[in-house]
Amino acid sequence: MTARGKFLVLEGIDGCGKSTQLRHLATWLPSSGLMPPGAGLICSREPGGTALGLALRQLLLHPPEGLAPHSRTELLLYAADRAQHVQQCIEPALAAGNWVLCDRFSGSTAAYQGYGRGLDQALIDQLEQLATAGLRPDLCLWLALDPLEAAQRRAGERADRIEAEGLAFLGRVHAGFSALAKRPGWQQVCGQGAVDQVQARLQACLQQWFVQNP
Predict the structure, then answer these.
(1) Residue 91 CB neighbours (<10 A)
(2) pLDDT tens, position by position, 49-73
(3) Is there a binding annotation on residue 17?
(4) Which of 64, 74, 157, 212 stands 20 to 30 A from 184 (CA)?
């Protein structure tokens, strides 16, 4: 019987270097010795990990002029994206013994819509249970970076609707991730410094984690 795969998530505020580090991990993990023989690595993201999710991502991040979703609508759209993502992509991959490496998951909803938007956490948890059917990542890696530095890194780049919310919003989201990172199944990794330094920290964290949690 095929052993169930592992579900890894990389979380963090916009500008923390998450997408860059996910590409490095996607290259490193298959040769790291952590994955069992025969297991594949599926890389995905939220929102947008499925064809339906790509349409929802466009509505969430680049809606038509004057048609930005209200906060509760935004939360429901993220939940719809996650429900489709779990059922169509993540669960089948894990059941087949493959590993899944995902750019954002439920932690981002708690941080952005909970701490950032101020929506009721009980409502978020209820929708989360519905969307995921109880699926939880084996490990969430929070790439921690000061919001001001993250904003400076993004200076001059075209911002999507969420990125354009400003530094105060980003600070609340950062505080949310800081609180979430104290939960079981989370590891905080410093996002400061050169790309290769952060990459080395992530690799060391993963190696230590799977020694302690085989």
Answers:
(1) 16
(2) 999 999 999 999 999 988 899 999 9
(3) yes
(4) 74
Which domain does 95 fall in, by range?
7-212
**CB of 176 within 8 A of CB of 114?**
yes
Residue 148 has pLDDT above 90, yes or no: yes
Spatial distance between the Cα atoms of 5 and 124, rounded to a whole number of angstroms: 26
CATH number at residue 71: 3.40.50.300
Q: What pLDDT is recorded for position 1?
A: 64
Whether 48 has a binding-site annotation, put simply, is no
Tell me if 44 is assigned to a ligand binding site.
no
Structure tokens at 203: 């690799």
16 a known binding residue?
yes
Instruction: Say whether 49 counts as a known binding-site residue.
Output: no
When divided into structural domains, the chain yields a total of: 1
**Measured distance CA(29)–CA(32) in Å, rounded:** 5
pTM for the model: 0.95
pLDDT 10s digits, 82-119: 999 999 999 999 999 999 999 999 999 999 999 999 99
Answer yes or no: is 124 a known binding residue: no
The encoded tokens of residue 15 equal 């500008």
107 is in an annotated binding site: no
Note whether residue 1 is domain-resident: no
Ligand-binding site membership of 182 (annotated): no
pLDDT of residue 158: 83
